[in-house]
Amino acid sequence: MTTTPATNPDPERGCQRLDRAQLDAWRALDYGMFIHFGMATFDGDEFSRGDRPSTTYAPDRLDVDQWLSVARDAGMRYAVLTTKHVAGHCLWPTRHTDYHVGTSGCTTDVVEWFMRACARTGVRPGFYYCSWDNHNRFGSSTPTIAADGGPGHWDWQYTTRAYEDFQLAQIEELHQRYGEVAEWWIDIPYSLCRGFRRQLYERMAALDPRAVIMFNTGIGDGVDQPKPETWPTDLIAIETRMPPTSSSSAAGNGHNPWRTIMGRRYHLPGEVCDTLQKRWFWTEGDAPRSDCELLGLRTLAHARGCNLLLDAAPDRHGLIPADQVEALMRLRRNAAVVGLG
Q1: 232: preceding bond cis by omega (within 30 degrees)
Q2: Per-residue DSSP letters for 61-95?
């Protein structure tokens, strides 16, 4: 398949793979829950080195249904789960490495239960997958490894073809085992070579043609994206920032979905991702942000034409803690006052 229409597309449609109706349906989801949970929850390091034994991951009261019930009750219409983060520890019993929940201190297939809980609650599912993998390296240099002894940090990262084969096999496995999702969220895509990024995108699009595919562009307001090192993508990631108030937007305020890339015009919606607390993963003592700040995130993302993917972080028991739940419910009530459902 190709990632753009072959000839002279309607300028109102754009050259992107998904038509405007599909993108508008994703935009109508408006508000989702990002769920960061995994090895980093237990070893206390967001950029976990992947050198702790699989048994370090050991939730004792894991309740994935609770996560999705909270998302539904908070007014969130979709949820994106970190299936594999920097540690390389997988939340499903993958065939491609032994570093997964099946060899851990809690053998529950989190991805399977996530999909079941989404179906039960009516929350649309999404999968996050990180290309930065400190455990399953296959000779690659991650930012962590480069910082240990190399002359750089981000500039000296790279992935080998063996790692890229591993990532593709895991993406295929997730689709084949768990089915279609609303969104794929690929983090650190710039560690992958350009040819493989296109191969990966096209394979994902063939497997799951109705899903939106995000190749994360990193921290920023999204104005100068996408760049060659994060192309192709269906969405513009706006991480821990907001699109600016700017006349460059089609609406004169906020995110401009129209981007010209290599002489062709694409319609690429925006998604702001940010945290309920200060950190992405649960950390002892990390309290939710103030009600005013959270309401600001919710209203600004909506007003500036973006979906908001707000992170919640289950704790070491495997539960979203009460303070996070209460903050999300207050946010829903406060958002309703200003006209957001």
Answers
A1: yes
A2: S--HHHHHHHHHHTT--EEEEEEE-TT--BSS--S
- Predicted local confidence at residue 151, as pLDDT: 53
Q: Give the relative orientation of helices 110-121 and 64-73 as an angle to the nearest 10 degrees.
A: 30
- Reading the block at residue 268, the tokens are 């690429």
* C-alpha–C-alpha distance, residues 313 and 33, integer Å: 10
Closest by Cα among 35, 20, 22 to 78: 35
Residue 154 scores a pLDDT above 80: no
Contact 276, 328 (CB under 8 A): yes
Structure tokens at 289: 């942000």
| Sequence-separated contacts (24+) of 52-58 with Cβ below 8 Å | 52/87, 54/89, 54/98, 54/99, 54/100, 54/103, 54/104, 54/105, 55/103, 55/104, 55/105, 56/104, 56/105, 57/89, 57/101, 57/104, 57/105, 57/106, 58/104, 58/105, 58/106, 58/316
CB 50 within 8 A of CB 87: yes
125: tokens are 């599912």
Query: What's the rounded Cα separation, in Å, for the pair 121 and 322?
Result: 20
- Name the one residue in this structure whose structure tokens are 């034409």: 305
User: What is the pLDDT, as a whole number, of residue 1?
Assistant: 35
pTM: 0.95
- CATH class held by domain 20-337: alpha beta
Please choose, from the candidates 336, 242, 255, 246, the residue with its C-alpha nearest in 3D space to the C-alpha of residue 295.
336
Q: Give residue limits of the domains in the chain.
A: 20-337
Integer Cα distance of 76 and 79 in angstroms: 8
Q: Please tell me the distance from the alpha carbon of residue 307 to that of residue 34, in angstroms, as a whole number.
A: 12
Contact 152, 146 (CB under 8 A): yes
